[in-house]
Amino acid sequence: MTFTLRYMTLHDVPQVAAIDRASFDLPWSERSYAYEVAESSYSYMAALEAVTIRQAKGWLRWLSAWNGSQRALEHLVVGFGGLWNVGDEAHISTIAVHPAWRGRGLGEILLAGMIRRSLALRAGFVALEVRVSNAVAQNLYRKYEFQVVGVKQRYYRNNDEDAYDMRLDLTDEAAVARFDQRLAALQARQPFIDRYSGGDRPRQTS
């Protein structure tokens, strides 16, 4: 199995929206994701793709046999993230992993990729909001040295829960060096191909 972190495309939107609906009480619409991908000038949407090998069946088996193989590649979007860049702020707008793929460190890949993309954009800091009750996500953010700088009262519309405003300072050279060490350790633990953090955003049409 191979994991690839890359830019989200319009083709990904149905899979992304399905993961969103399975992850959040207030999911974004497919139209919102299409806007972020194809129209927004400040959005850098990420998709994490898993490529698995499975036995071909039916006409695919016939085609694979004709090509000399009984196996077919399956490309699945297993997670996604949203990053906005305005001025010196990089803002993580959303991040989620498909429920069936959680517990493998894939959310950490998405987070690290968006931090690295923020560095490439020369942002001064990364900001995000997280539910005060979401200890699992907070632990991951704190691992990457995000700090709570405030509380946004009744931020979530479905239950009026507060959100922590968390930020990561990208102007601290020592902190950036520690991030590089964490990224290297992550790559060693869960290898992935990064086609997102250093590349230009591809042009897409809606």
Residue stretches low in confidence (pLDDT < 50, at least 5 long) are none
| CATH architecture grouping | 3-Layer(aba) Sandwich
Helix content: 25-40%
Counted up, domains total 1
Q: Could you characterize what this model shows?
A:
- This protein is an alpha+beta fold and 206 residues long.
- The chain has one domain: 3-Layer(aba) Sandwich (Aminopeptidase).
- It contains six helices and eight strands; from the N terminus they run βααβαββαβαββαβ.
- A hairpin with a 2-residue loop joins β3 (71-86) and β4.
- The longest helix is centred in the last third of the chain and has 17 residues, at 173-189.
- The model has no long low-confidence stretch (mean pLDDT 92).
Write the layout of secondary structure elements.
Layout: E1 2-7, H1 13-23, H2 30-38, E2 46-55, H3 58-66, E3 71-86, E4 89-97, H4 106-120, E5 125-131, H5 135-143, E6 147-152, E7 163-169, H6 173-189, E8 193-194
Parallel strand pairs: 1-8, 4-5
Antiparallel strand pairs: 1-2, 2-3, 3-4, 5-7, 6-7
Summarize the structure.
The protein is of the alpha+beta class and 206 residues long. It has an eight-stranded mixed sheet, sandwiched between helices.
Features:
206 residues; alpha+beta; Aminopeptidase
